[in-house]
Specification:
about 15% strand, 7-stranded mixed beta sheet, about 40% helix
Length: about 650
């Protein structure tokens, strides 16, 4: 190895696990090499010297096949006997110079220097090619091992000019932090050799070093997310069943997920992520909460669907009406889109008027009347924001600016007698997060009452997410109709709309407004929702969620500030917004003013580090009760590492 090759040493360094049979050991090392491991360190304190020589010879042959290097731990004689590529020694042993001489040129010498920079200086003086420091995270195999400050790795690289290796406690979750801090070699045992698929795990580590494009070119190896995305596109438009999942906004390949548990989920490449999307809001308890899963299993065993009434629907309706005083009656549907679409038809049927007011940037599902953007002038009727929406329909929708009281007053002054409803996200979560001004919500309530229009709070996202009394309780406003979804299904397809009795009694079969659904009130979905609603009623639930979400925002904002990055963040209950802009925005125009490229850079850096944020600069994020304080701290630490090299 030439001096410049040595300096460029970079990648995954597999350390062989102790005490397993030779065939198993060789199979595991081969799997790791297939995933792109650059160095293998043979360490075997438990075997006799003669056995070690046999294994080391086989490992050397294996490494050569994959163009990787074999390093022998703590045994210069063995390394020479098998013609290994180098030796790794303890830096304090005092025999580094002798080892250097014995090994001769072209062989690698590495030294463990614990957390001691002076020791590293001495080791470099003695001719080592890389320096290993105890990693900054606890090691499962050596819980008492010394832990280095992250700053040591960059210092070693910059001041000593040799690659720094992190050894002990390195996992896929903390690897990106270590790399960002200046680590060139990640020495891993447990999180590599105990992974369900060693090759995929090695690939995931390598991805952190190599970036995605290089990885895509690695045709002989499997990169499952990429393969799945290519397959998906053959028969699913864009490869996804809902557009934002396609990563179009941020670029790159979407993750295909195979499993979720608590605050984490795992993708098809075996990489684990802390999840801040939570299925876009429903998973307020985290993934696969045992009580929710048990409720689903029990209900499913009794029958998947009846297309006829069940008792659990009554329980759900009673509970929703008890928790939200604005609801006298409620009807269950299967999605948020159905809930808002039905609420609008109901408001039109009830008032006998056609005009609808919505706000630019609010999303209420994909029904025709709601896929409308602002017209060309102030107070002009809207244009379709999607192909396939008739202009004739869009012309009934007036699109106004969020948080703009004067404009709302103007609209009522001009069109008041024809306005059937105002529909609003009381806290917007669909153009990133925008908090309402109290005066805006108050004015909306007053104007609807004065002009006989129906006020619809679309709480599909905010419902039970910002608090147990939803946004309407939080801001002290009583809407005429409320739409719900997400949390009330606990991860299963449930939506609902409800409100004043006199309005709700207009629905079929009581009244003339038609609305129906084959799977509405589905017993399995309702069971998941009821179990979720039961758990979130525990005292202090939303306080804890609010505190954690706020801590995330505060921590991210402080990390950005420390490194001079223009950034702000805010939260309401368990939902949050991140903005690459000085202050949180109040309107659609201000949201559009955020630095989208900066967000995309942040998104990908955090994704690589194992933190899954919404793949768009214009979506809110979600924290669940399953996120621990240390999860939040881990995310903040990763963001700090990202901002540091911004
Ligand atoms: N309303 C709001 C506020 C939403 O955020 C969403 C979805 O994100 C919807 C309605 C539509 O719900 P669904 O996707 O379940 O149809």
């Amino acid at each position: 190895m030439t001096a410049s090759e040595t300096k460029a040493l970079r990648g995954l360094y597999a350390i062989t696990p102790d005490g397993i049979d030779k065939p198993l050991l060789l199979a595991r090392v081969e799997a790791a090499l297939r995933g792109g491991v650059k160095l293998v360190q043979y360490r075997d304190k438990k075997r006799k010297a003669t056995q070690q020589a046999g294994i080391a010879l086989d490992l050397r042959a294996l490494c050569r096949r994959f163009d990787a290097r074999l390093i022998v731990n703590d045994d210069v004689a063995l390394a020479r006997a098998v013609d290994a590529d180098g030796v790794h020694l303890g830096g304090g042993d005092g025999d580094l110079a002798a080892a250097r001489q014995a090994l001769g040129p072209g062989k690698l010498l590495g030294a463990s220097c614990y957390a001691d920079f002076d020791l590293a200086c001495t080791a470099v003086g003695a001719g080592v090619d890389y320096v290993a420091f105890g990693a900054a995270y606890p090691s499962p195999t050596k819980p008492l091992a010394v832990r280095s400050p992250l700053s040591l790795f960059g210092r070693c690289r910059d001041e000593l000019g040799v690659p720094a290796c992190a050894i002990g406690g390195v996992t896929l979750d903390n690897a990106a932090n270590l790399i960002a801090a200046g680590t060139s070699l990640l020495a891993v045992i447990t999180d590599l050799f105990e992974a369900p698929d060693i090759t995929l795990r090695a690939l995931a580590f390598q991805q952190l070093f190599e970036g995605e494009t290089t990885l895509r070119r690695r045709t002989s190896l499997s990169h499952r997310n990429q393969q799945l995305f290519e397959r998906a596109q053959r028969h699913i438009p864009g490869g996804v069943n809902s557009p934002v999942r396609a990563f179009r906004s941020v670029g790159g390949t979407p993750c295909f997920f195979t499993q979720g548990s608590g605050s984490r989920m795992t993708d098809a490449d075996g990489k684990s992520y802390l999840d801040y999307v939570g299925s876009w809001g429903p998973l307020i308890l985290g993934h696969a909460h045992p009580e929710v899963v048990a409720a689903v299993q029990q209900a499913a065993a009794l029958g998947l669907s009846f297309g006829a009434p069940t008792e659990s629907e009554i329980e759900m309706a009673n509970l929703l009406c008890a928790l939200l005083p604005s609801l006298d009656m409620v009807r269950l549907v299967s999605s948020g889109t159905e809930a808002t679409m039905s609420a609008i038809r109901l408001a039109r049927g009830f008032t006998g008027r056609d005009t609808l007011i919505k706000f630019e940037g609010c999303y209420h599902g994909h029904s025709d009347s709601l896929l409308v953007k602002a017209g060309s002038g102030m107070l002009t009727f809207g244009n379709p924001s999607s192909g396939g929406v008739p202009a004739d329909l869009a012309k009934h929708t007036l699109v106004l600016d969020y948080n703009d009281v004067a404009q709302l007053e103007g609209a009522f002054a001009e069109y008041g007698a024809g306005i059937a409803a105002v529909i609003v996200e009381p806290v917007v979560g669909n153009m990133n997060l925008i908090a309402p001004r109290q005066a805006f919500l108050d004015a909306m309530r007053g104007l609807c009452t004065k002009h006989g229009a129906v006020l619809i709070f679309d709480e599909v996202m905010t419902g039970f997410r910002v608090g147990l009394t939803c946004a309407q309780g939080h801001y002290g406003i009583t809407p005429d109709l409320t739409t719900l979804g997400k949390v009330i299904g606990g991860g299963m397809p449930v939506g609902a709309f409800g409100g004043k009795r006199e309005i709700m009694e207009m629905i079929a079969p009581l009244g003339p407004v038609y609305q129906a659904g084959t799977l509405s009130g589905n017993p399995v979905a309702v069971a998941a929702g009821l179990a979720t609603l039961r758990l979130i009623q525990q005292p202090g639930f939303h306080d804890a969620l609010t505190r954690k979400t706020q801590a995330l925002c505060d921590g991210l904002a402080a990390a950005a500030k420390q490194h001079g990055v223009t950034f702000s963040a805010q939260s309401v209950g368990g939902m949050f917004g991140l903005y690459f802009r000085q202050q949180p925005p109040h309107s659609y125009a201000e949201v559009m003013d955020c630095d989208k490229d900066a967000f995309n850079r942040f998104f990908h850096a955090m994704l690589a580090a194992g933190h899954y944020f919404a793949p768009s600069a214009f979506e809110a994020g979600f924290v669940s009760a399953a996120h621990s304080d240390s999860d939040i701290a881990e995310t903040i630490a990763s963001a700090e590492a990202v901002f540091k090299v911004w």
